[in-house]
């Protein structure tokens, strides 16, 4: 489901470029060709954080019980219907997030942390936060 969100964020790339705001992804592992397979969905630069420092002192995870949640199933079906097939390699239980980080002392302008797999950021919220960054 992260591929679906990556594609949606990448759809903002022309607007981000116009505003001078880069698009980055931070991934925790590169099993096999995982990052290479992710690149068609994400139009920004991808950083590998093998030490998982970006994920903070306590990683947020969902265990196998996540698959008992209706929201996770609905998100999976939604992504599948849009043609997104996820990978099943690697660890796979760490929840992701989206951050818009401003310039200088602006700090974090938007923070979206997945509550469950498939809990995507609202793209209009991303644009609204990006527009707060001075050019």
From TrEMBL:
> What is the residue range of the signal peptide feature?
none
User: One Pfam family name from the record?
Assistant: AhpC-TSA_2
Q: Which domain of life is it from?
A: Eukaryota
> Where is it localised?
Cytoplasm
- Keywords for the protein's UniProt record, in alphabetical order: Antioxidant, Cytoplasm, Redox-active center
Cellular component, GO, one term: cytoplasm
Gene Ontology terms for molecular function: antioxidant activity
| Record family assignment | Belongs to the peroxiredoxin-like PRXL2 family. PRXL2A subfamily.
User: What name does UniProt use for this protein?
Assistant: Peroxiredoxin-like 2A
Q: Lineage, please?
A: Eukaryota, Metazoa, Chordata, Craniata, Vertebrata
């Amino acid at each position: 489901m992260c591929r679906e969100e990556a594609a949606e964020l990448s759809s903002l790339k022309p607007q981000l470029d116009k505003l001078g705001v880069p698009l980055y992804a931070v991934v925790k592992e590169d099993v096999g060709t995982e990052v290479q397979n992710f690149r068609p969905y994400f139009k920004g630069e991808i950083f590998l954080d093998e030490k998982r420092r970006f994920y903070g002192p306590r990683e947020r995870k969902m265990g196998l019980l996540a698959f008992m949640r209706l929201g996770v199933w609905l998100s999976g079906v939604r992504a599948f219907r849009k043609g997104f097939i996820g990978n099943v390699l690697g660890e796979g239980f760490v929840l992701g997030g989206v951050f818009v980080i401003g310039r200088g002392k602006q700090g974090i302008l938007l923070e979206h942390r997945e509550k469950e797999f498939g809990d995507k950021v609202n793209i209009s919220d991303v644009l609204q936060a990006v527009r707060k960054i001075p050019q």
